[in-house]
Amino acid sequence: MKSGVYPASVTPLDAKGQIDFASIAKLMAWFRAGGCSGVVVAGTNGEGASLSAVEKRDLVKGAVGLADGLEVILGVATPSLDEAMWLCKQSHAAGAQGVLLMAPAFYRDASEEGIAQWFEAVLNSSPIPILIYNLPQRTGITLRAEMMARLSKYDMMMGLKDSSGNAENLSTYADALKGTGKVLLVGDETLLIPALRNGWTGTISGAANVIPGWLSQIVAEWSVDKESAEAKAALIEPTLRAIRSCTQPAANKRILVELGVLPSADVRLPLVSPSTEQVQPVLALVRSLTN
User: Fold this and answer.
1) pLDDT-based confidence at residue 277 (cuts at 50, 70, 90)
2) How many whole angstroms separate alpha carbon 241 and alpha carbon 187?
3) Residues 6+ apart with CB under 8 A from 56
C-alpha cells in the first residue's frame, strides 16, 4: 500500500437515492488531480452504515473500474463475522487493494480477547489485505497497542488507521508495529504532522474530499522539506478544524456541490443535507485555499 493521502470518500447518490457511479467517476478524477494515492469507499464518510452489503460489493467493484491508478480500499463496518468475511472476498474479487475493518461495534461489552479473536477470524479467512480501524467514538471499543501488535503478526494485516484523536497513539502504535513493515494512517488530520514525525505513512481523511491537494502536498513534501510541509499544515489547520466541526459526510457533500465536483448533496436518512448557507463559513475557508 502506497504512502500518502486516501480520501474517505463520500458516496454520491442519484435522484432515486441509489449509488451514482457517474459522480463517482468525477470524484475519482478530483482525487487523482489532487495527488491522492488511493481512496476508501463505504467508510465512515461514505455512509457505509447506510449501505447494504450488496451495495458495498457493487460500490467497490465500480470504484475499482473507475480508479485509474488510485488504490481502492473498502470500508467494512459490521458486527457480523460472516458479513465481514464475505465483503473481504467480494473486495478481492473486485480487484481492490484492501479493506478497512472496524471493530464489531454492537458488541462493545465483549472481552478484549473476544474482539481479538473476531479480528483474527477475519484475518485468517481473508484473501485480501486488511487495515485495522480504531474508532472508539463510534464503536465504543478501544484497540490498545498490544492488540495491534498481536494482530500485526498476521500476514493479511497490512496496517492500521487510527481516528481516535488520541495523540499518544501516534508513538505507542508506531512502537507496536515497529519493524513489521505495516502502514500507519491517521484519521484526525489535525494530527497529521505529529503522525509524520512518528513515522506514520499518511492519512485516510474525510477532509481530503474537499482539500485533497493540500493534504497530498503535505505528505509528499514531508520527506524532502519538512519546514514547508509544516507551514502548509499550519495554514490549513483552521480549515481542517472547521470541516471537522461539521456534521459529516453531509457537509462535505454540500461543499463538493458548491465546488462543482458533485451534482447532488443528497444523503440517506437519518442524515439530512445542510443548506449552502449553513456551510458557507466552511466553504469560504475551503475556497480561500483553492484560489
Assistant:
1) very high
2) 13
3) 41, 42, 48, 74, 75, 76, 87, 90
Q: What's the CA gap between 29 and 24, in Å, rounded? A: 9
Is residue 161 among the annotated active site residues?
Answer: yes
Q: Which of 56, 161, 232, 253 is catalytic?
A: 161
If we measure between CA atoms, which residue out of 186, 208, 206 comes closest to residue 196? 186
Residue 11 and residue 253: Cα distance in Å, rounded? 9
Which is nearest to 24 in space by CA: 10, 38, 37, 35?
10
This prediction has a pTM of: 0.96
Region of 199 please: left (phi>0), alpha (psi -120 to 50) or beta. left
Question: With contact defined as beta carbons under 8 Å apart, do 285 and 238 qualify?
Answer: yes
**Known catalytic membership, residue 154:** no
Q: How far apart are CA 44 and CA 125, in angstroms?
A: 24
DSSP-derived 3-state class of residue 203: strand
Which 8-state DSSP code applies to residue 275? P
Taking alpha carbons only, the member of 208, 201, 216 closest to residue 286 is 208
- pLDDT tens for each residue of 166-187: 999 999 999 999 999 999 999 9
| pLDDT over 90 at 290, yes or no | no
Annotated catalytic residue, options 6, 61, 133, 253: 133
User: For residues 42 and 94, what is the distance between their CA atoms, to the nearest angstrom?
Assistant: 14
pLDDT of residue 55: 98
Whole-angstrom distance, CA of residue 106 vs CA of residue 11: 24
Burial class (CB in 10 A: 0-12, 13-18, 19+), 277: exposed
What is the residue type of 200?
A: W
